[in-house]
Backbone:
């Protein structure tokens, strides 16, 4: 199998595909044409810039170039995660950053060091793409988990207050909602694992196959990635939910409802 390199002309021809969603938007009066055009321009610009940066980082192959890039990715992912949640609390961005950093870096480096055997530890060819895939899925998980937990706490406030009045601790009264938040955050990756290979061909596997890799080797890496995403997402969601609980818990074992804010 050979790798077919795409030229700017090829991408320009591929852009014609965008006429399909644009036409649907016009026909149904969705008003998405401008947004679609902006998204297409941003996609092209951002990925082109990323390609240039990665090419430079790969060639340099120095940890002091790799680490700052990983840090920028983590900050961006934390901001995106909280932006997607309709509920938040003071310090939510920092909590999301801490949760994602611990969950994804621990999973990434445990895999590259113990499973793949990457040497040196900062090899950008492995570390950057793997962390990026974990962040892309992890931020969705923690966003869904946080939103569900805080929304359920607000929705079930009378019931929770009743449990507290009857002698339950704040932890005991809140635990069902924490569990539901973690469960909600895990649903996307569990669903993905259920249908992978049957309904969908994941991006990493598809990319490797298009690049000429043996399908069985691509499958092995994709299995590894799915397991990594499941581990990182679970760890990230439970960490953020626990931090959120600690932030809204009053020292007198009462919930501080006023710190939970709503954002559209």
Residues:
């Amino acid at each position: 199998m050979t790798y077919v390199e795409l030229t700017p002309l090829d991408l320009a021809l591929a852009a014609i595909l965008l006429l399909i969603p644009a036409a649907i938007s016009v026909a149904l009066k969705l008003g998405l044409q401008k947004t679609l055009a902006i998204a297409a321009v941003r996609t092209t610009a951002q990925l082109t810039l990323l390609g240039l940066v990665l090419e430079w980082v790969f060639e340099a192959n120095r940890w002091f170039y790799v680490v700052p890039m990983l840090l920028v990715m983590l900050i961006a992912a934390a901001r995106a995660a909280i932006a997607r949640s309709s509920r938040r609390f003071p310090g939510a961005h920092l909590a999301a950053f801490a949760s994602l950093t611990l969950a994804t870096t621990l999973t990434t480096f445990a895999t590259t060091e113990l499973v793949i055997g990457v040497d040196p530890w900062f090899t950008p060819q492995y570390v950057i793409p793997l962390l990026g895939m974990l962040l892309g899925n992890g931020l969705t998980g923690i966003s869904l988990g946080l939103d569900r937990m805080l929304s359920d706490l607000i929705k079930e406030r009378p019931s929770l207050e009743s449990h507290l009045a009857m002698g339950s601790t704040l932890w005991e009264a809140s635990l069902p909602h924490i569990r539901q938040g973690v469960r909600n955050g895990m649903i996307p990756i569990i669903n993905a694992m259920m249908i992978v290979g049957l309904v969908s061909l994941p991006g990493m596997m598809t990319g490797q196959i298009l690049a000429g890799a043996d399908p069985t080797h691509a499958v092995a890496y994709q299995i590894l990635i799915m397991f990594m995403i499941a581990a990182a997402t679970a760890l990230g969601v439970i960490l953020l939910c626990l931090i959120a609980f600690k932030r809204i818990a009053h020292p007198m074992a009462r919930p501080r409802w006023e710190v939970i804010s709503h954002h559209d």
Notes: The chain has a mean pLDDT of 91. The chain is about 75% helix and 0% strand. Residues 1-60 form one domain. The chain has two domains: 1-60, 62-262.
